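Quick note —
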Amino acid sequence: MVGAGSHEFVTHSSRTEYEGAILALRVDDVEMPGGRLAKREVVEHHGAVAIVARDDDGRIAMIRQYRHPIGRRLLELPAGLLDGGPDEDPLAAAQRELAEEADLAADRWRVLVDLVVSPGFTDEALRVYLADGLQQLPPADREDEEADLVLEWVPLAEAVRHVLSGEIVNATAAAGVLAAAAADASETPLRGTDAPWRDEPTAFAARR
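Predicted structure written out below.
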């Protein structure tokens, strides 16, 4: 028996139980410490990007959008899936989503924070960008839930209060807002847009 923290979790077999439009369910047989094989259900998902887009007055662009699994509208950051194939550039996807959801472009982009959503059962991960130097774009055509979304400009300090009061519950939005406030307070340099993204999901995109 090797010491704790040194076991190699080898996958002995894997099978796909379901494959849909935006996710797949995979069941792996994984070797545990001591040699026992345990089944682990893994939801494969597209990666995603989100944007903290900040104007010259320190307000951030947020959208209020209906989310069917929750059954209500949530206050969120502009965001979207990396569903353009395994070679889609995350920055290009973020620029597209900011234009499509908020009618905005930005001159300056930096990586704010990288997130794994729920690593106990899914490989879904997100990269959140900070975008400054905003420019207004012509209104985009929107469909389905996005046709109903509302753009709201929220001062960063107020957004932090919304997170702490429970008004903002979307995990990506909460993390992005708090990371932006922490970066401002600590003056920590942010990463460039070419920074490696270690946990970017690729398994589901490779199926397409």
